[in-house]
Amino acid sequence: MIPWIIKQYFRLQIKFLVAFKPTVLFDRINSLSWYKNMLHEWIDNQKFITNSKILEVACATGSLTHHLAQLDHAPTGIDYSSKMIELAKTNHFGINFSIASVLDLPFKNASFDAVIAASLINIVSDKTTAMGELFRTCKKGGIVTILVPSTKFNDNDLHSLQASLMISGFSASALEAWHNLAPKMDANDILNLFEEAGLTKVTTRKYLQGMIISISGIKP
Fold it and tell me: Which of 1, 152, 175, 205 is 20 to 30 Å apart from 111, CA to CA?
């Protein structure tokens, strides 16, 4: 009985944070090892050249942008939420953060060596325009890469993943909430978006036992 009560407590806590304090929720999730490790592996797999100019779209509270800076890149983080950007600037001094929408990025064409976006394309209504902006702001020969939850991941997969990660409490509930609440996408739909945008040499990878997929392409 006690474990069930504890699980319900963390579920309610996350629901409260989603509704009233999303900035706090994102900041806490960014500190979870399974989430950080997944993002860092995603970045490592891109094999960015040192000192790359990288735009992170939907950077939230800026933890991944900060990680890029620690890897000796020159990152810029943008988010639509002013509260997210305010906390990002507070937590990560010396990095360029600003408020902006993926549907109208405030940068010139071909401004960045790479453009990245985690958990963004799956939630925007105009996916074609969003992908067009990621493509437009990337330099020729540069990388565009996104990360989204996969439609092929189910409840049984979630239980298996939680067990393999050996997580409980808030961490397990956060993973469960992401699985249940975040819009999911099929890899083929994303591949079509990449093709329509004009990206080539497209590759697909899976993370967290297939819960998350990344699609990466080169701007020709």
Answer: 205
